[in-house]
Amino acid sequence: MARHLTYGAARPTAKGFSSFACFAFVALLGVAFWAGVIWIGQAVLRITGLGF
């Protein structure tokens, strides 16, 4: 008789919640990336004197 070994959590999370959490995490990373790009761009423009 084959034994099914589990690694990690004893009870796996639901597939729908897992994919939604992954999507939310990727979206959060995207927002953080573009916020950083805008912040660095504004800082560069401010330092060079080309900014508003």
Provide an overview of this structure:
With about 50 residues, this protein is mostly helical. About 65% of the residues lie in helices and about 0% in strands.
Which helices and strands, and how do they pair?
Blueprint: H1 15-48
Question: What tags apply to this protein structure?
Answer:
mainly alpha, single chain, rod-shaped, 1 helix, 52 residues
Task: Write a concise synopsis of the structure shown.
With 52 residues, the chain is mainly α. It has one helix and no strands. It is rod-shaped and about 75 Å long.
Order of helices and strands: H
Beta-strand percent range: under 5%
Judging from the principal axes of the Cα atoms, what is the shape? rod-shaped
Fraction of helical residues: 55-70%
Structural class: mainly alpha
Which residues form runs of ≥5 with pLDDT under 50?
Answer: none
Main β-sheet description: none
How much is the radius of gyration in Å? 22 Å
- The pLDDT mean sits at 83
Q: How far from one another are the termini?
A: 73 Å
